Amino acid sequence: MSRILAALTILLALLVAASLALGDVSLTWRDIYHATTGTGDADPQSVMIVFDLRLPRVLLALLVGVALATAGTITLAIMRNPLAEPGVLGINSGAAAAAMAVIVLIQDPPVALLQAAGFLGAAAMALAVYALAWRGSTSSLRIILIGIGLSSLATAGTTFLSAFGDIGSVQRAMIWLAGSVYDANMVKVRLLALWLIIPVMLAFLASRELDLICFGDNYARSLGQPVDRVRGMMIVLVTVLSGAAVAVSGLIGFVGLVAPHVARRLVGASHARIFPVAALIGACLVVAADLIGRIVLPPLQLPAGIVTGLVGAPFFAYLLWGRRHGHE
């Protein structure tokens, strides 16, 4: 496992370096070195590009990838469904509906209000799904079915607002819904990093509980696990992680599905091993998606959510094909 972690860390470092170097204005490795260390004859323009534009963007992408991958790993475990991801809990749809409402109904809303609305919409949807799924106890099937239903309802609300809202406001909302870290700054980076420390640590500490719940509710209860309480706490963690990521970057899909599946193939079924590997894979995915979106069609910039969708859709089809033929 140490080799896998080392390889992924090196890959992430290379992606970060490439993200700092490439863009509308390309920088040499010497420019980056002088700008980041403050040594030599650092060009003020290079310093501004690195610290004000690219470094906050790549760091925010990295943190969003870690959050989405960790949330996806938890979701796969508690739902025991290889096609499940945080969107199953309605988190993405709730955040999208709330953000759309703020953008369309309020003239020039502040960024902080938009982020708060996205997080609160995600939390409200997750709470509604869990409350409606409770019937003396919870089951992953009920949660999935109710999540799909409420997601469709939230999507209908989003569509209604986009159909009758101001064209300019709707266009801004569509850009947010596509998922991007283009408006990153160090304040967002610091806030998201502080926000993620405790949830990520709690997720890792819950590795054994997730290992147990993967075997089924009855088996876990026979070993003394309070399944409903554990599932409820894990849904809270998923909401905190995904809601924070969605609030700062919009909807970046499939990271929570791809990262844990690849990590499981690399290191096995133990969640203590899956979490760090999935976090690194998620960070690599979002950083790479943002980099590709910036350089593939210059001067246009594709949102990272579009790039991850182009990767995630075939991966989803692959999982469906495997399920059709009885593979894991």
TrEMBL record:
Main location class: membrane
Entry's localization field: Cell membrane
GO molecular function, one term: transmembrane transporter activity
Keywords assigned by UniProt, alphabetized: Cell membrane, Membrane, Transmembrane, Transmembrane helix, Transport
Keyword hit for Cell membrane: yes
Membrane-protein topology: Multi-pass membrane protein
GO biological process: siderophore-iron import into cell
Keyword match Ribonucleoprotein: no
Cellular component annotations (GO), alphabetically ordered: plasma membrane
Matches recorded under Gene3D superfamilies: ABC transporter involved in vitamin B12 uptake, BtuC
Transmembrane domains' residue ranges: 58-79, 86-106, 112-134, 141-161, 191-210, 230-262, 274-296, 302-321
Family: Belongs to the binding-protein-dependent transport system permease family. FecCD subfamily.
Protein's recorded name: Iron complex transport system permease protein
Species this chain originates from: Rhizobium subbaraonis
